[in-house]
Amino acid sequence: MWLENLRRTFLDWDAMAEILPIMLTVGLKNTLILAAFSTVIGIMIGVILAVMGISRAAWLRWPARVYTDIFRGLPAIVTILLIGQGFAGIGREIFGPSPYPLGILALSLIAGAYMGEIFRAGIQSVPSGQMEACRALSMSYSEGMRLIVVPQGIRRVLPAMVNQFISNVKDSSLIYFLGLLVSEREIFRVGQDAAVVTGNLSPLLLAGIFYLVITVPLTHLVNYIDHRLRTGKRISRGQPSSGLEEVEELNTAVSQERETTRFSGGSLSVEGLRLSYGALEVLRGIDLEVPKGTVTCVIGPSGSGKSTLLRSLNRLVESNAGVMKLDGEDIRQMKPEKLRARVGMVFQHFNLFPDHTARENIMLALTKIKGTGRDEARRIADARLAEVGLQGRGDHRPSNLSGGQQQRVAIARALAMEPEVVLFDEVTSALDPELVKGVLNLMADLGRRGMTMVVVTHEMGFARHVADRIVFMDEGQVVEAGPPEQLFTAPRTERLKKFFAEVL
Ligand SMILES: Nc1ncnc2c1ncn2[C@@H]1O[C@H](COP(=O)(O)OP(=O)(O)OP(=O)(O)O)[C@@H](O)[C@H]1O
C-alpha cells in the first residue's frame, strides 16, 4: 500500500509524459539560457575582478574585494530579490516588462564574484618562472599575462568554471521568485506548476532528472577536457631516455647547418654594478668584460650573487648603480623588451610553456612579438629543434620530453630570437645526472660556433674545458677572474682555493 502511494507520488508516468514536451521546449530552453548568459557575463566580471584583485594598486584591489565579499556572502535568493525587485522600475525601462533579464543580471553578479576568485587563484597558481620566461623572450608584462599566464591560469581552473556553470543551472531555479511569464519558466517552475495541477511530485522528479541530465555529463566532460589539456595528445617519448642515447641524439644531429653557421655574438661590459634587495646588498661593485664570441663561466658558492648578476644583465632585476653595456650601448637606457630580444636567457627549471608543443614554444615569441610570419616561424622553429637534436619532436608537449630534451628546447627557443648574447642560469642543476652531458655538449657546441655566453654553473669540468674566461664570485664581488687554466692550476686567493677544495 505505501509502495503504491510512493509510486503515485513520484512515478506517475502519465503526469511525466504530459509535462515532458513543455519541459523540453520551455523549461530546458530557459534554464540553459539563464545559465549560459549568467556564466558568460559572470566570466567577464570575474576576469575583471581577478585582474583588479592581483593588481599592485590598492584602489583597484579594494573595490574587487568589497564586491566579492558582498556577492559571495549574500544568499543567492537575497541578491536575486534585491536586484530583480529593487531595480524593477529601471529594468522595465531598459528591458521591458519581463523580470527575466534582471534575473540573468542577478545570477551574473553572483557568478562574477565566484569566477573572480576562481580566476585569481588560477592566475596566481601559475609558477613565477612562466612570466620570467615571457619577459626573457622580450614580452612585456601585459603580453606575458595575455599570451601565457592568464590562459594557463584559466586552463587550470576549467573544472571550477564548469562547476560554476552547474551552480548557475541550479541557481536559475530561484529566478521564479521574480514572477516569470509562462513562456519564461525554467525547469523547476515548469515542474512545480505541473506538480500543483497533478497533486503529486512526479513532475518535480522529472525536473530533478532534467537537472541531472545537464550537470552529470558536464562534470565528466570537463574532467576529460582537463586531462587532455594537461597532457596534450599522448605521444610516447620515443626511444631516448637514457643519457647516452640523448648525447647520441645530439651528435647525430650535427648537420651541415650546424657545422657551417656561425653566430655573430655581441660583447658585454659591466662596471661597478651594485644591487640590493632591501637592506641585503647582493652585488657589491661587479666589474666584468665579456668579449664577443666568448664563453664566460661564473662560479662561486651558493648565495654569492651569481644568478642576480645574470638577471641584472637582461634587467629581469634592476640594478641600483653601475654601468652595463651591450656592444657599447648603455643597457640601462634601453627599453627592457628591446634588450631582451638581444640578450636571451635559459633557466634552471626550463620554464617551457606546458600547454604548448616544443615547436609552439619556439614560435610563440617569434610570431607574437617579433612579427615573423607563421610559415617562416615554423621553419625557424624546426631548424632550431633540429640543431639541438630534436627534429621530429616538434609536436611533443614538454611533459612528453625528458628534462634534458626540455632544456634543449629551451635553448632552441632562446636561439630562435637570434640573440647576441645568451645567459645560462645553472641550466643543468635540475637535470638527472645522466642527462647533463647532452645539454653541456650542446652549450659547448654553441660556444665553438661563436655565441657570446655567460654561464652560471656548478659544472667545473665544463667551466675548465669550455670557458674562455672564468669569473669567481663570493659575497657579491668578483674575487678572481681569468682563463680557466690559470684559475684551476694556480688560484691566487684563499677563497678560491677553499671553494675548489670543496667542489673538486
Ligand atoms: N628576489 C629576491 N629577494 C630577496 N633576496 C633575494 C632575491 N633573490 C635572491 N636573493 C638573495 O640574494 C642572494 C644572492 O642570491 P643569488 O641567487 O644571486 O645567488 P647565487 O650565487 O646564484 O646562489 P645559488 O647558486 O644558490 O643560486 C641570496 O642571499 C638570496 O637569498
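^ adenosine-5'-triphosphate complex. The first helix runs from residue 2 to 10. The first strand starts at residue 268 and ends at 277.
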